[in-house]
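Sharing a chain and its predicted structure for anyone who wants a worked example. Both blocks are below, sequence first, tokens second.
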Amino acid sequence: MRTYKRQACKKQACKKQTGKNQAGEKFFFQMAAFLAALCAACFFVSCGTTRNAAFIPFDETVARHEYLAAADDLEAAADSENGEDLYRADKDEVLRYLDTGILYHIAGEAQKSIERLNEAEYLIEDNYTKSISDAALSFILNDYSLVYCGEAYEDVYLNIFKALDYLKLDSFDDAYVEIQRVGEKLNFLEDKYGRLADSLNESGEAEGAIQKGEIEFHNSALARYLSVLLYRTDRRRDSAALDMEQLRRAFTDQPEVYDFAPPEDLDAILAPAQQARLNVIAFAGPGPEKRASALRVTARGGLIVITQEEEDDLGNMTLKDLTPIPFPVPGSGLNLKVSIPNMRPRGSLITGIRVLVDGQPAGGLSLLEKLDKVAMETFKLNETIIRTRTVIRAVLTGAATAAAKYAADKMTKDSSIGSLLSFVGGIALDVAADMKEEADLRLARYFPGKAYVGEFLVEPGDHEVTIEFLGAAGQVLYTEKIPRKSYASGKLNLVTAYDLE
């Protein structure tokens, strides 16, 4: 009897010890899993917020106007072992080719620029096609985890820069094709993003909540200006006159984008002239940037309400927008915050541009196009989609996170160690959910912000042309000298200059 009791006690003690070991092992693995999730979340957030630091050396080279060195160094760095810090091979190839293509363009390496911008244009179209077929995936993954398809303005203006490259190579026919591509893309821009919205609605996740965006930009004055110059040089005066009329209409029909007066000397461009015509196009200031904007999302039942706050000039948070979206919300309700990108211009010290011929003032250039303004206007097409898709993804993620936290609480509520585990696990899940909705701020870095133009009559022969970029007080901020060359009557004598500061 005593032996039996001793054996029963040993078995019971062994069972308790085994239970403790199993509980300890269970706790260990659960804690490891939660901490791994927390660390992974923090890692990805860190990656997303520190990526720009990798570009500082190249930005500094660009600031010194050493564009060829910046292009060569950036390309070499992208091909190195640490190239993923700049451009992820499976996600950011469009950005790589846009950045290097524009830098080679500014540096005067026309053929290298064309090759890279061609690759960017192909990838933009290919990635867009894939995004249509993989629409449902964008409700699972954060936008930064998706392949970059390029912004609308990047896709449009790369053809402008390719046209200028071809003109540098004296290939008029190819330049015509690139300018025509600008018009074609603008004509179908709303349809393109409309198809993307349709594919997202048809994926089943959006429940038809994504609306198509509308914009006020269908006609580029810069593209029309180049077209007029080409037609005039080819002596196709009727075609030149038609495009000149479209150039004027760009200003009258699109006041949201062209919120300034057109150049005063447009009529003179089509007037007869015996002298050589010197045409100057100067690009000044940096392109736009993306910044994160916070949205508060309140979801319950069949409705999502989005409120957006932004800081005013006095530092006060003001309500900018309130949008309701009919959408079946899982669970009892959610109240969460998400980030979306919004596009804004970057400031420039350049307020005017002056041209000198053989050291003598020839006149100033006139503002023709705000590329950064066009970027913000065309971004409205994608912004509508990004905003709604992000909110829906956040709601679905929030509901899943809440369910996971409830399950963790239920599993571990019976012990103090379990309470700690639940607490840590809840943090991990919350951080992972927040990380999932970090705003995607990718954008090509080296597009210029504004385009200025001017035409000057000079005597046929050799001349030295100087372009001075001026500050608010009229001081010269940067001077670009064009090597002395011959300018002929009846020819296209086009000079370009750049200052991205």
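Comments welcome. Residues 2-50 form the longest helix (49 residues).
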